[in-house]
Amino acid sequence: MNLKVRQGISISLLPLFIFQFLFCVNHSLEGGEKVESHTLQSEQTEIHFLSNDCKNKKKLLVFIHGSPGSSSDFLSYLNDKDLQTQFCILVPDRLGYGQSMNQVSFPDIFTQGKAIHAALLNYFKKESHSFTNGYVVGHSYGGPVSLVIAMEKDPSYPIVWKCILLSSPADPNLEELYWYNKLASVMFVKWILPKSWVHSNEEMYTLKSDLEKLTTILGNYPLDILSVHGEMDKLVPLENIYYFTKWKPMIKHKIQILEGENHFIPWTSFAEIKEILLTEGS
Question: What's the pTM value of the predicted model, to 2 decimals?
Answer without folding.
Answer: 0.89
